[in-house]
Amino acid sequence: MPRLKSPPAAFLSAAPLLFVLLWSTGFLGTKGAARNADPFAFLTVRFVLAALLMLALTAALRAPWPTRAQAGRAGVTGLLLHAGYLGGVTTAIWLGLPAGITSVLVGVQPLLTGFLSWPVLGERVTRPQWAGLLLGFAGVLLVVGGQGIGSQGSGGPSASLPALLAAAFALLCTTAGTLYQRRVGADMPLLGGTAAQYVVSAAALGAITLARGGGVIHWNAEFILSLTWLVLVLSVGAILLLMRLLRDLPAARVNSLFYLVPPLAVLESWALYGERLSTLSLGGLLLCVTGVALAARQPAAPPPRTA
Q1: Which tens digit of pLDDT belongs to each residue from 172-228?
Q2: pTM value?
Q3: Which residues have C-beta within 8 Å of that of residue 280, sequence separation ≥ 6?
Q4: How far apart are CA 110 and CA 259, in angstroms?
């Protein structure tokens, strides 16, 4: 297969902003789908379609397929980053947690990952990063406290605590998946490995859907539009764009993009669905963004020693 040409400078300048914009819309698309379908049934359909597209893309581009061992590790990553994370996010929104609030709660994943990178991966955590961890944690408390348990969602007061727990589960899964991928996934073929992740995720959530007696899907215009957007733009387009960014830009710069997602998701949720944050929650959002920005900073390399 011929080597891909390096992207022009204009692409590298615009691609990070495009990625953030696309990634932030995932919470809106998920809300549009969750309003019309059982979360597990919806995600099963999404992952089946995404798997078929990625398998076809891998074959069409003659990209390498993962070995049996690599496919097994990709399956674990898929269960955490796709089935677990998106399962928790979709369930939280289905139970009535606003999409903007959900994006803030799971958006502190870089903070939790940074905190656990020290004992799990042996990576040094700097003082600014510790400060970011503390600010982000305080911001999450303000966001949740500002909204109040039971003050949002159509499910009533009893629905919000399970929704928060589902969001917490999603946060734990994406953090564990990120750490696992960083530990064992360096040699994973990008296209073939991603296809394997979707195949395992579809099988797992399909089994859960069947065990629950199946799930209702209302195939109306809102659901079809949301599903199409999530599969083509998020599961394929945004993922491939992320792969290209990781190839052509420093990893630290790419990771820092994720702290811009919650503010955009909050604004988009307000514009499309009329979701509003209290003043206290807005202050918490600002703390979260600041905290993740600090945690995303990499320590400066020591100056070269002179003779």
Answers
A1: 998 888 888 777 777 888 889 999 999 999 999 999 999 988 889 999 999 999 999
A2: 0.79
A3: 142, 145, 146
A4: 8
Structure-token pair, residue 196: 């394997």
Using CA atoms, how far apart are residues 259 and 6, in angstroms rounded to an integer? Answer: 27
113 neighbors 173 (Cβ within 8 angstroms): no
The residue behind tokens 């089946």 is 48
Close Cβ partners of 9 (under 8 Å, ≥ 6 residues apart): none
Q: How is residue 15 written in tokens? A: 């691609």
Stated as kind and residue range, the H or E segment containing 259 is none
Q: Widest CA span of the chain, in angstroms? A: 73
Torsion from C-alpha of 58, 59, 63, 67, nearest 10 degrees: 90
What is the torsion angle, in degrees rounded to the nearest 10, for the CA atoms of residue 121, residue 126, residue 127 and residue 129?
Answer: -70
Exposed, middle or buried, 212 (CB in 10 Å: 0-12/13-18/19+)? exposed
Summarize pLDDT for 78-132 with one digit per residue, the tens.
Answer: 999 899 999 999 999 999 888 888 888 887 777 777 777 667 666 666 777 777 7
Q: Are 22 and 238 in contact (CB under 8 A)?
A: yes
Contact (CB, 8 A) for 65 and 130: no
